[in-house]
């Protein structure tokens, strides 16, 4: 059968039927003639299509062949248009557009995504990705008006309201960022094109070799120069760090599976807290000035050239030693805040941290930063030729240890062991099998041939005499700062700082409407307050006082109790310092006592003598249970 002749004859008949308004029996005969060629007489689907073809042609007056022809034409035109558009766009992109690629392993990716999430044009896009964002304790002051309160019946018959944070996570909105695909936005009058692509990358460092997803962010604009994109990235980076001067970022090593990816995955941000003022660190002013001057000289831009001309490695190390709670870590945070540096905290007792990982972490440090190694004396560092077991601290422990060894020696049969014997054996076996950081590995990471330069190393310890001499020799530790327990003068300074004015009296009530309480099943009641803390205050920390729980008499009494001027505060602080024995209590212990009385300095002064006597007895009896707080 001549197929071309058949189609030509049928299409001619179809055209005549369209002009004359006749039925479509000819077209039906054409379909019937095509069915044997396509095997349609045995296929029910083709038979159903033929029936549908006849119904449309006879009942609706529309030629189905024409419809199919038009559908095929538009489909082909769409494919051709897509091909032409793709070819033209590639031509424009290669010759008239500039682009910069950003991988998800780089920190600029985080900067860019944060900035894009705040753009109104991106927030109104039809293709978005929702991300859960957790806020720190220092970023929640703006949500004070959404707080709830819970009323609990007191023993005296009255009701007391307490803050309730059951809806805290429910009120936190997600962050919306552009989804995977192509997006557009404007910046400084110029149009930019953003493309997010996911690609599978083979990870050969895994145990069995796996594929991981890696994102590629492509930012492009019209023009043969990438200068506008560079300006955008510079602006985004400045935007990301715009509040860095008032905050200190703390980072720790990422989990072992994440560290394999390198780049920004080596370190994870764990906190972003406000800068700690240097005046809040309880330390001799002379020592403070010495550390500040030394660090300022080291961080000066002219210092690297001076070190290089004399062949000296550009490194600086500090050792802060003293009893617990004397402010060693606090000084580290305060120094980082003064110079605007990030803190990188490394724990040498991390089970998954190897010497190779430690070297990688040190090599990925930024140009200027503070590396903090806390409690270096407890890290278990020892030389390879030394006995891992340490000697007993005193004669009593030595005698007890000898007795235990002798007793365990008699118990050759494991069936006679007690639970304590089994625990000692397991602990010893764990120590023998421990694979941690050796002293040699730490020294190579600190100042080896390939170690990172420009960073500031801070090590803290409670027992400086137990450290190896090679760890604290000059060149690795350039300045040692000793901390002691508080003196009466330091106790006076701490008292004044605790009760100094914040700009508003804490006894002032905050006006606001509190909704009627809603009774819940546990016998308490939950109160929803839309403006519980809506009034403004000059204090940087909000005070949680409501009108409802306080009567007029109690409010007047509280107002009177908190009224004192700076002269009276200095007098009370001097009396408090005179009651504190020299070198007996750490600043942390004194601060803990004052925090329990942070709104009443007169009460703190009144109860100081009793607290000092109770703490003295506790230290003499060597007990850890506080009798007086």
From TrEMBL:
It catalyses: ATP + H2O = ADP + phosphate + H(+). Residues 69-281 form the BCS1 N-terminal domain. GO terms for molecular function: ATP binding; ATP hydrolysis activity. Residues 382-414, 507-531 are annotated as: Disordered. Keywords: ATP-binding, Hydrolase, Membrane, Mitochondrion, Mitochondrion inner membrane, Nucleotide-binding, Transmembrane, Transmembrane helix. It is found in: Mitochondrion inner membrane. Its main location: mitochondrion. Residues 394-414 have a biased composition (Basic and acidic residues). Residues 314-487 form the AAA+ ATPase domain. It is a single-pass membrane protein. Belongs to the AAA ATPase family. BCS1 subfamily. This is Mitochondrial chaperone BCS1-B. It comes from Colletotrichum higginsianum (strain IMI 349063) (Crucifer anthracnose fungus). The lineage of its organism: Eukaryota, Fungi, Dikarya, Ascomycota, Pezizomycotina.
């Amino acid at each position: 059968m001549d197929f071309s002749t058949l189609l030509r004859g049928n299409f001619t008949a179809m055209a005549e039927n369209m002009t004359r308004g006749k039925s479509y029996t000819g077209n039906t005969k054409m379909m019937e003639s095509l069915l044997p060629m396509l095997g349609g007489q045995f296929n029910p689907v083709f038979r159903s299509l033929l029936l549908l073809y006849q119904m449309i042609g006879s009942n609706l007056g529309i030629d189905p062949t024409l419809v199919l022809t038009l559908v095929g034409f538009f489909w082909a035109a769409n494919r051709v248009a897509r091909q032409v558009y793709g070819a033209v766009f590639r031509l424009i992109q290669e010759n008239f557009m500039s682009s910069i690629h950003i991988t998800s392993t780089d920190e600029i990716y985080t900067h860019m995504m944060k900035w894009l999430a705040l753009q109104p044009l991106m927030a109104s896009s039809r293709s978005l990705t929702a991300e859960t964002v957790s806020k720190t304790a220092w970023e929640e002051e703006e949500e004070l008006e959404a707080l709830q309160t819970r009323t609990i019946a007191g023993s005296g018959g009255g009701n007391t309201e307490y803050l309730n944070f059951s809806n805290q996570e429910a009120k936190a909105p997600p962050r919306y960022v552009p989804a995977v695909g192509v997006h557009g936005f404007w910046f400084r009058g110029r149009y930019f094109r953003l493309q997010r692509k996911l690609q599978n990358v083979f990870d050969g460092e895994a145990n069995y070799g796996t594929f991981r997803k890696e994102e590629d962010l492509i930012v492009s604009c019209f023009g043969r120069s990438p200068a506008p994109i560079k300006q955008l990235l510079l602006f985004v980076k400045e935007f990301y760090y715009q509040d860095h001067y008032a905050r200190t970022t703390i980072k720790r090593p990422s989990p072992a599976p994440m560290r394999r990816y390198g780049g920004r995955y080596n370190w994870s941000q764990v906190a972003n807290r406000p800068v700690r003022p240097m005046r809040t660190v309880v330390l001799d002013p002379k020592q403070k000035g010495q550390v500040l001057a030394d660090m300022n000289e080291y961080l000066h831009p002219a210092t690297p050239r001076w070190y290089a001309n004399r062949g000296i490695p550009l490194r600086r190390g500090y050792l802060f030693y003293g009893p617990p709670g004397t402010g060693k870590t606090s000084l580290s945070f305060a120094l980082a805040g003064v110079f605007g540096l990030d803190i990188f905290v490394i724990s040498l007792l991390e089970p998954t941290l190897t010497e190779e990982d430690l070297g990688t972490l040190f090599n990925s440090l930024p140009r200027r930063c503070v590396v903090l190694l806390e409690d270096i004396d407890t890290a278990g560092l020892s030389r390879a030729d030394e006995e891992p077991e340490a000697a007993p601290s005193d004669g009593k422990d030595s005698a007890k240890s000898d007795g235990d060894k002798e007793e365990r020696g008699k118990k050759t049969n494991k069936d006679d062991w007690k639970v304590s014997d089994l625990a000692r054996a397991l602990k010893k076996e764990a120590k023998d099998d421990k694979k941690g950081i050796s002293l040699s590995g730490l020294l190579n990471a600190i100042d080896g041939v390939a170690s990172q330069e420009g960073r500031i190393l801070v090590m803290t310890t409670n027992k400086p005499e137990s450290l190896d001499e090679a760890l604290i020799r000059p060149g690795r530790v350039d300045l040692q700062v000793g901390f002691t327990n508080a003196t009466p003068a330091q106790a006076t300074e701490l008292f004044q700082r605790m009760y100094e004015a914040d700009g508003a009296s804490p006894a002032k009530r905050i006006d606001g409407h509190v909704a009627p309480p809603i009774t819940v099943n546990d016998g308490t009641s939950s109160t929803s307050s839309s403006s519980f803390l809506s009034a403004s205050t000059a204090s940087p920390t909000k005070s949680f006082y409501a009108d409802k729980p306080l009567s007029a008499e109690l409010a007047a009494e509280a107002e009177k109790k908190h009224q004192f001027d700076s002269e009276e505060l200095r007098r009370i602080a001097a009396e408090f310092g005179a009651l504190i024995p020299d070198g007996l209590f750490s600043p942390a212990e004194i601060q803990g006592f004052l925090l329990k009385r942070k709104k009443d300095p007169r009460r703190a002064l009144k109860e100081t003598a009793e607290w000092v006597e109770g703490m003295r007895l506790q230290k003499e009896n060597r007990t850890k249970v506080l009798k007086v707080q």
